[in-house]
């Protein structure tokens, strides 16, 4: 599978997020500036998306951000965040503008991805005043070239996750990450494109080099059942072979990969469990935006995606999910 196909999935995800934001599922004032028409996996441009897709993206975005914020608050501002395979993600901009004076904002944030994706994001940020102001604007020194950008504490850098040693070297030498500081790694639908052996090597390298760390990981799960087999077939029909699907066969497969890689503790929650743990007023609001033809299909979709969590001290071994999601509105 080519890198171009993987990059195309990023465009489709951004288009789906933009559609959900436009309908009022959640707020993201920056997604329109970093998204462009998708190429076919989820429908391109501003094409309408099925309600279950928008509702699913809402649950994914608000849950991951709520858990992330709760972890940042646990350890304070002396914390680093690395977004692996960041693509068009706008989490850093949203955090800085929603909580500009918060004392828990990270002291380093890195968006890392394949070079073609970072080149596009650098161009988007440097040519858009709204994005520039979100990362500090005139208050920070911005150094960039075609492929990377440094506006401390925010960095965009090219990184090939198939080369774990080079990834760590880039984080430390180009971005100035401190291996002794608490560090949170984010990975959304990225490890599944790597063979399991490759993703384990990457996870092991991160756990070994950053011993005070946590990982928040969103990905497919339960792919060994009939619904999962259909999902895999649909991806393959579009030229997108999920090389790491064996690690997504079940919740235990996801958990065991993290433990084998050297993380002391790991937990996995299906998105169905996450959705049930979200505050009822929040889910009631979202469910009024668009009606589903039937709930069963949505529940099946939620059962086949998960948030996986791994951690070493000073992060909790398994955060209480309901408490971490209590702030979602």
From TrEMBL:
BP GO annotations: methylation; regulation of signal transduction
| Reaction equation(s) it catalyzes | [phosphatase 2A protein]-C-terminal L-leucine + S-adenosyl-L-methionine = [phosphatase 2A protein]-C-terminal L-leucine methyl ester + S-adenosyl-L-homocysteine
Pfam families the record matches: LCM (PF04072)
Q: Name one GO molecular function term.
A: protein C-terminal leucine carboxyl O-methyltransferase activity
What are the alphabetically sorted keywords of the record?
Methyltransferase, S-adenosyl-L-methionine, Transferase
Protein task: Methylates the carboxyl group of the C-terminal leucine residue of protein phosphatase 2A catalytic subunits to form alpha-leucine ester residues.
Q: Can you say what this protein is called?
A: Leucine carboxyl methyltransferase 1
Q: Which organism is it from?
A: Macrostomum lignano
């Amino acid at each position: 599978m080519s890198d171009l196909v993987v990059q195309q999935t990023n465009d489709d995800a951004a288009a789906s997020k933009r559609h959900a934001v436009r309908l009022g599922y959640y707020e993201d004032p920056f997604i329109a500036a970093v998204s462009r028409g998708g190429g076919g996996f989820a429908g391109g441009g501003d094409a309408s998306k099925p309600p279950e897709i928008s509702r699913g993206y809402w649950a994914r975005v608000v849950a991951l951000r709520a858990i992330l914020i709760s972890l940042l608050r646990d350890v304070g501002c002396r914390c680093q965040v690395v977004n692996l395979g960041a693509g068009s993600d706008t989490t850093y901009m949203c955090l800085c503008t929603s909580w500009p004076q918060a004392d828990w904002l990270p002291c380093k944030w890195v968006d890392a991805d394949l070079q073609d994706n970072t080149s596009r994001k650098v161009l988007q940020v440097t040519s858009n005043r709204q994005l520039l102001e979100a990362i500090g604007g005139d208050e920070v020194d911005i150094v960039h070239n075609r492929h990377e950008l440094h506006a401390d504490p925010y960095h965009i850098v090219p990184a090939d996750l198939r080369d774990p040693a080079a990834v760590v070297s880039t984080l430390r030498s180009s971005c100035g990450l401190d291996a002794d500081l608490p560090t949170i790694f984010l990975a959304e639908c990225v490890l599944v494109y790597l063979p399991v052996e490759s993703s384990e090597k990457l996870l092991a390298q991160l756990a070994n080099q950053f011993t005070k760390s946590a990982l928040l990981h969103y990905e497919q799960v339960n792919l060994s059942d009939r619904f999962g087999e259909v999902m895999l077939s649909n991806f393959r029909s579009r030229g997108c072979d999920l090389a790491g699907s064996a690690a997504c066969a079940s919740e235990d497969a996801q958990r065991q990969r993290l433990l084998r890689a050297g993380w002391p503790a790991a937990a996995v929650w299906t998105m169905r469990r996450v959705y049930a743990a979200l505050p009822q007023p929040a889910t009631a609001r979202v469910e009024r935006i668009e009606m589903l033809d039937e709930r069963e299909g949505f529940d099946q979709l939620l059962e086949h995606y998960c948030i996986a969590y791994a951690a070493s001290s000073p992060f909790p071994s398994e955060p209480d999910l309901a408490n971490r999601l209590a702030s979602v509105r």
